[in-house]
User: What shape does this take?
Amino acid sequence: MKFIKRKNKDFEGEGLILFREVSDAMKAERVLKKAGYRVQLVAPPPELRKGCDLAVAVKLVEKLGIERTLQRNTTGFVEMVPLNFDSPEILNIVKVTDFGEWVMVKAANMKLTFEKRSGIIVNVSGGGCPDIPYMHASMIDKKLQEAPHPDDLGYTLCALMLERAMEEGLALYEKGGAAC
Amino acid sequence: MLIICGTIPLEDMPLTFGRVRADGDSFIVGDRQVPCTQGTGAMIRAALSAADYLKTDPPHALLAGDIGLGTGSREIYEYLIQNIAGIRPDVLALHYWLPDMPLTRRLCAAVDGCAERPVMIADAASMYSAKAAGLATAFDVFTPDASELAFLADPAATHPAYIKKHLFNIEGNRTPELIRAAYQNGSAAKLLLVKGAVDYVVKDGNILETVAEPDVPAMEAIGGTGDTISGLIAAFVDAGIDPAPSAMLAARANRAAGQRARATPATKISRIIEFFPDVFKENLCQWTGVCVVEGENDD
Assistant: This one.
C-alpha cells in the first residue's frame, strides 16, 4: 500500500460563508477557486449543523469580491460571518492500494477502483449518503476521463470525498498509473 | 418482522413499504422492481438470500427514491416516526439516507415508545446520524469499516469526512485502540462488527472474536460488500440468532462468498450474492448448529 499525503495549504480564513445546501457550498468553493480566491471547505458551527453540512472559510477582507462572484454565478448562500470557532478541516488524505491490474483510491470513507490499463472505473464503494448508489450506477464501467464527476452529480460530503478519490485516480492514470 | 429501511437511487420511486420477494438478481417491493446494486439494494438482496435459506419470513423494506437531495430520506424518517409503534418490527435495520440528527432523535424517541423495542441495526449514513446525534448507545449493532470506526472514535466528528487526520492516517493495526475510543466516547452501539482485512466482533467494548479467513483483499474495493454483511446480520438476528454470533456468521459468509466468486476488484456485488446459498448450505450448520433440513417447512 502506498500513502499519498497532501500538505495543508497555508490558509487562515477568518470568515465563513454559510449555506443551506451542501451542493451550494461545493459549487461556491469551485466558483471561488476558479476566480482565484483561496478558500477552504470546513464544518459549520455546531448550532447550524444538520449532519452533512459544509461551509466555506474565506478571507473576510475579500468579502465584497467573494459575494459578487457568488452572486454572478448564482451561487446561493445564507450569509458570510466572522469565523470565531475552532472549525475542523475536511480530511485531505488520499490512500492508494495497488491490486495489480487495478488501483483503489481511498479518500475518507469513499473508495474508487479503476483498471490500470484502460482507466475504466470498475467499482465505487464506501459511503452512506443517498447520492453514492446513484453515482455508483452512473460511474461504473466508464473511463475516468469520461465518467461524470461526483461534484457535478452529488450533493453530500460522501460525494466530495469521492470526487477527491476520482481526482487522484485521474492524476495517477494520466501519469501512466504512477502508483500502479 | 425485519424491516430494512433506506434510499434507492431511482428518482421516481415513491415511498414504498412492503414484503420483499426475489426476482432474479433483483427484488420486488410493492409493484416496483429494484436492482441489486451497491447500497440498500445489496443489503436487502443479501437478507433475502439468508431468509430464504433459513426459511424465515422474507424481510420487509421501507424504501424511497433519493439521489442525494434528501427528500426520500425525510419521507422514510417521517414514515417510521409515525408508524413504528404500530408496525412493531422485531428488527429495524437502517441504512442509506441523508443523515439528519433532529429526525434521528425523533425516530429514537418513537422507538422508545414501542411496546417491545426492536433490535436496532444501523449501517452507512444512518450510523453517521446516530453517532452525530449522540444516540449510538440506543442501537444494538453498528457495522463500520476502518474509516467509519475512526469516525466513531472521534468525538467531534459529525461525518467521516471530518475525522482527525491522526485517526485516519493509521499505519499498522490500531483497530483495538479505535474500538476502545469509540466505546469511551459513547459513540458505539452495543455490538460492533468492524469490517476490514480482519473483522472484529465487539460487544460492550470487549473483542469477542476476529475473522480473518478466507482472506479476499479485493472485497474492500467491491461496492456493496459492507451492505451485504449488514443484510446478513439483520436476517440472522431476525431468525432468532443473537447479534454477536450473527455478526460472526455474516463476516464468515461474506468472505466465503467472495472466495467462491473468485472476487477481483472488478467483481460486481450481485456476483457475490449469487454464492450465498451455496455458502450457507455448506457452512452454516457446521459454524453454528443452525441446520436446515431439505424440504422442511416448505409450504
In short: Chain B touches chain A through 62 residues (CB under 8 Å). Chain B has one domain: 2-288.
